[in-house]
Structures are given as structure tokens and as C-alpha cells.
Records
---
Amino acid sequence: MKFRSLIILLGVIILTAGCRFDSGMLIEPNKRESNTNRIDNPQLAKLILTPKRERLRVARDPFKPLVMKSGKSVTVAAPKVEMKVQYLGTLKVSDQNKALLRVNGKKGFYVTGDKIQGYTINNIDTDQLILTQDDQKLKIKRSDD
């Protein structure tokens, strides 16, 4: 019995102490391999590292001063912004119509008198919407989407 307990004790000591010999399985810290694979392709490198060139859009002459030497300011027309308005439907609350619009991708409810990028909502009907800006009138028909 003492012999059996001695063998068990020796086995426990060996198992908890670990191995003392180098089996070649251990990797030294300075010889570790990186997880990324290296790709040697100059065309791919050019494609990744070369930035896209975008065309520069200028709304006004950058060399023309905004304020003249005499102190008069120069009026510059605002750049045209494409407005995407989609008339989706109406909601009648008491005696007021509210228009459900998608303006540049965002949905919302609008009432008569609200402004959308410089245009004022003049009239809301069940099948069309009338926007005004200065002397311009813009009619937008209700879409089925």
C-alpha cells in the first residue's frame, strides 16, 4: 500500500511540476509569427494606397472678393441644392391637413407655412402639395410608394 501511494504521489508531483525538457514545441517570444499574411502584389498596393481624385465643384469664383473696397458687399447666389421631396400622404387633425413627406430621405409631417429648403408649403391637398418660393410655384403630386 505504501508503494502504491508513493507512485501516486510521484505521479501527482510530475503532473503538477510540468516538463523540464525542451521538446521543440515551445516558441521563443522573439520568433513568433504574425497572424497577418503578407501579400507581395504591387498592383494591389497601388490600388489601396492611391486616393481617389474627386472633381472639385466651386459655387463661386474664389478670387472674387466677398466685400468690395468701397465697403459694399457682393451678393453671391447660393449654390443649387438638389431637393428630393416625395409626397406620401395626408393626415387630417381637426380641421388642419398635415402632409407626410420624405425630404432628402427623411420622413416627417409638415403643415401649411412650414419651410423646406427655402420653399414654403402653401397648400396641402389629398392628391397634391403646392410649394412657393418668391414668385415660383412648385406642385408635387402624391406618390404611391
Note: The helical segments are 2-17, 42-49.
---
Amino acid sequence: MKYELNGTRRQFLGLTTAAGVALFPASAPAFATSEVFMMDLPPASAAIAPFKISIPNAAIKDLKYRLRNARYPEKETVDDTSQGPQLSNFIELMDYLAKPFAP
């Protein structure tokens, strides 16, 4: 099934907000009866605690592939950050993340 939207962004946001408000009462009982689980955390400390993480090599390889093959938007039309981060800074960061690094 294909839906086409022939309206403005404001109309779309209004429609989705109205749908969310209409559907919330039906889902509220599920939230009201769900249990809350709390984690036992150690006391706060200024000391740095060592930790280890394990990330599969396949996940790292996939991430690097995605970073190298990302498609970037056109350069921004202004010289400041009013349209978000500068494309050149973003590409520099992606290049840094795609390179191998050691702790």
C-alpha cells in the first residue's frame, strides 16, 4: 500500500500530533502497569574506573565501510554554523573515525 502526502510540513506535523494524541489513551494503561527496574550503581567517585568493552570486528569493519562510503550533502551556503556543523569539519571527523587507532 502506498500513501502520498500532498501537503505542507506543518500539516503533516499537525496530523501526526493529532494521531498520537488520539492513540495515547489506548496505550496509557500499558505504561501505567509496567514495572520500573532500577539499577544498583556504585557510589559516585572522582576516581576513574577502568573498564573493558567488546565490539565484534565485523561491526567495526561495517562502520568503517559506511564512513568511507558516506554520501555528503552540498557545501553549506553560509560561512557560519547557523545551518549546522560546517561540512569540512564533519568530513574531517568522519575521516578521523575511519582511520585505525589504538588506545
Note: Residues 87 and 93 are 10 Å apart (CA to CA).
---
Amino acid sequence: MVLTERIQSEKLRSAINMLKVIAHPVRLAIVDLLTEKNRMTILEIQDALNLEQAIASQQITLMEDKGVLKSEKIGRSKYVSLRFPKMQTIVDCLEDCCNEH
């Protein structure tokens, strides 16, 4: 059975869009960082990746909009985390593929 028969087309389109979003160096770095830290503030991500505030906010907002990240406001801080922690598998697979060559 092929993938399009195992997964509903709407869910498959959503997954494809998430893959497209993380196919960017900064956004992939954010995913990688969140696989290690689980939950971080935008400022923590900005500092860890040495990003300008506007770039960090823009990338995180896009990732939230496409369903890659979820956020939670605690006090004055906004925390983000991976909506699907199994995204770590994608990062691990990419790392393995890159290290094989």
C-alpha cells in the first residue's frame, strides 16, 4: 500500500507543508534546538542561534502557522516547543544521511 493510501490526503498535505517549512537552515536549527531543550522562549532561541530578534520572531511565527511549533504564554514570556516531538527523527535521519558521505 502506498503512502497516499495509508494517510488521508488532508493530513498528508499538512505533513508536506511542515517538511517544506523546516527545509530552511534557520528553521531546521530551531527544530534541532527544540529537540534537545523541549521548550524555550524566543529570546533563548535567538541567543542560542545568534539571530536578530526580528528574524527569530518571523521564523518562529511561520513555524507556528504551519503547525511545526506550538506556543504557550507564561507570565510575560512566550515559550515554544515542537508540536510533534517525533520531528527529532527527521533531524536524526538528516544527520545520518549527511554523515554517510
Note: The first strand starts at residue 39 and ends at 41.
---
Amino acid sequence: MGISVPTLLRLEAGEPSVSLGVLATALWLIGRDQALATLATPKEDRGALELDVRQAEDLGRARVRATTQAKMKKAAMRQTQPEGEAGQ
């Protein structure tokens, strides 16, 4: 394979520090290179899906805060206007 023994040991241990190229070569050598396609499938990537959900939740909360603040600011401005200027 052309890699060092420590790299091979890290590969066998499943350590994430091993490069994708080394992993791909090892899979190819044992005839399992088709497994790479499943690694890149979004439905198999739970970490990315969880991150997307967290980001969507954060965005939703930020939008709710922004909407609430805008409504409160608008209400405060209406209260400070004299009655004759309320429609302007």
C-alpha cells in the first residue's frame, strides 16, 4: 500500500486522522471500494443531518427574536407618537 506501519495501525483502529486517500486505497485493495459511495450519501451522514437540524432551529429562533423585536419597536413608536400623527 505504500504507507507506514503506524498509519496502517491507525487505519485498522478506525482513527479519523487517517487520510481519505489511504482509506480509499485500502478499500480498493480488498474489493470494497463501492463502500465509498455510501460514505458520501447524505442520508447516511447523521452528523451532517444533525448539524443541519441544529442550524435550522437556530435560524428559526433568530427569526422569531427579530420579528418580536420589530413588533415591539413598532408598538413603542406608535405609543410615543402624538394622536394626530398615528396614521402617518
Note: The chain has a mean pLDDT of 87.
